[in-house]
Amino acid sequence: GQQMYCASSDAAGNIYIGSYQNAVAKLTFHSDSTDTNAFDVSIMNTGDVSIHNTFTVTKDGDILVCGQRGFAWIDPHGHLRTFDETTGAAGLNNAMKDYEGNLWLASASYGVIKYSPGCFQSPNQTAGLDGLAFNTITMDEQYYYLGMDSGLMIYDHNWNPIENDLTRLLQGIRVRHIITDRDGRIWLATYSAHGTICYHPETGIITDFRAENGMEDCWTRTLLE
Questions:
Q1: Neighbours of 27 (CB within 10 A)
Q2: Which one, of 9, 59, 19, lies nearest residue 39 by Cα?
Q3: d(CA 188, CA 215)
Q4: Cβ within 8 Å of residue 65, ≥6 positions away
Q5: β-pair type (111-115, 71-74)
């Protein structure tokens, strides 16, 4: 039900149709007939990227959608990444991907735009961490430990969330610093009445260090082994 705006094809002969809104249709043909039974249609969503001016299918199977509003990159596995006007993606007329993986865009509003792959990868979108503020992070052989003003978050190395006695204990507690010591124990400076906490991942034992057992003050901000 969306108005068609542009079309392209890939090396395999598949046809792609862009729209006024945010849908790209892929037509995969399995015969030379013009009958509608001769092809299958799959729909890909481009998020907030709309009014598709043109798009390019690279030899590696990346789909680069140039929109009047935004730029969409659909990789060969179907993963979508979008760019908006805050990064210059507006009034786009063409796009290409070079041999280094850089993306080049031709914009009627901002001239030529280049997006380059960064040296680092962020798990924010995968783990649902966008928009959250963290004070500290450490890791051991199994988990990442992230401290924030409202508690502790633990993730496995595939960024699946973990809930245990430690995360429940620190719910709503400010965690200022976390370190992993040479024996694999996790130490947390909580800047709260809980003081400094030592956590043994293998046994699950949690030990508080406060004024009652030798600390000068329980409001700790930083740790050093």
A1: 16
A2: 9
A3: 14
A4: 18, 24, 46, 49, 52, 55, 71, 72, 73, 74, 95
A5: unpaired
* 54 vs 221: CA distance, rounded Å: 53
Q: Between vectors from CA 197 to CA 196 and to CA 199, what angle results, nearest 5°? A: 155
Using only the alpha carbons of the chain, give its radius of gyration: 25
Q: What is the pLDDT of residues 170-210, one digit of tens each?
A: 999 999 999 999 999 999 999 888 889 999 999 999 999 98
Single pTM value for the model: 0.54
CA distances from 96 to 19, 63, 65 (A): 20, 10, 10
119 vs 219: CA distance, rounded Å: 37
Phi, psi (degrees; rounded to nearest 5) at 206? -120, 125
Q: How many CB atoms lie under 10 A from the CB of residue 210?
A: 18
Structure tokens at 157: 């190395």
Structure tokens belonging to residue 106: 């031709």
